Amino acid sequence: MLPESKVMKEIRFKKSDTVKVIAELASYIDSLHEDKEYTLTVKEHKEKRSISANNYFWVMCDKLAEKLRMSKTDIYRSYVKEIGGNNDLVCCINKAVPALCEAWEGRGTGWITETEDSKLDGCTNVRLYYGSSTYNKEQMSRLIELAKQDCIENDIPTWDEDELQRLCDEWGGD
Question: Domain check: are 73 and 23 in the same one?
Fold first, then answer.
């Protein structure tokens, strides 16, 4: 039997590997404690994002903040609203709007809410923007591109196109 610290196992596979995965999983299950209960979760594999892409984005925001005399946070949050494909619109009863907004925005700097009038009496539409920690490669590329264009417009040097593309490619799966 395995020590308790060795119980977790990760198996990366494609659907075409079914027989091999079942054999590996069966072998692993045989090594587990008889009297314990376990949970099996299968989820889509996603590559971890590149810290370099995120770091470079914040370097550009920092340079823009200095040049434009704005906060990095305000610059970042303005980009979050511009990239597209990163928000949901929900209809919420009026009395629940403050709690929804507070809970959503409490997730991080880029988790933004905006309210809009609803056609339903007693309700408000709330637009919920997701922060960049959830972005796929294309969304992160757009975020970096927005910062890059603002840097160019403000005579702030940026990396060349190939280097920026490499950073975005390292960001990870969709």
Answer: no
